[in-house]
Amino acid sequence: MSTIFAKILLAFIFILSISWNSDAQFEDYCIADEQATEDVLQNAMNWACKNGADCSAIQDYQSCFFPNTTKDHASFAFNSYYQNMKHNGASCYFTAAAILTGLNPSHDSCKFEYLP
Asked: Which positions carry the signal peptide feature in this UniProt record (predicted)?
């Protein structure tokens, strides 16, 4: 009985693995943690923008300026830094102000970069 179950389980896993959409299989984005304070987010965002993030899109009236909130701007900056620097050992931490998500946070004309 247990070998039949194991075979069925293996077949199911195999079918799942070949039908899985590989385009999004390992995508991860670094965004602001909802629990982080405004001050923590602002300081971490400032650091990210000075140390490898491309923050031009969150400048006044650029593609990711709206919504004009610290949390949204920090999310864009954190992700930009993380995507640009993860292959050099960077993490998505920012003094506990950020978290990883598998959901693409892009919205409207604001496109969050993903680098494999």
From this structure: 1-24
Q: Return the DSSP state at 103.
A: S
- What confidence score (pLDDT) does residue 4 get? 73
CA torsion angle for 57, 61, 66, 69 (degrees, to 10)?
Answer: 80
Residues paired with residue 99 on neighbouring β-strands, in sequence order: 31
Helix, strand, coil percent content, the chain, rounded in steps of 5:
45, 10, 45
Rounded-to-integer distance, Cα 28 and Cα 114, Å: 7
- Contacts with 73 (C-beta within 8 Å, 6 or more apart), sequence order: 45, 55, 58, 64
For the chain, the average pLDDT equals: 88
Positions in the chain short of pLDDT 70? 1-2, 5-25
DSSP 110: B
> Which structure tokens are listed for 15?
């079918």
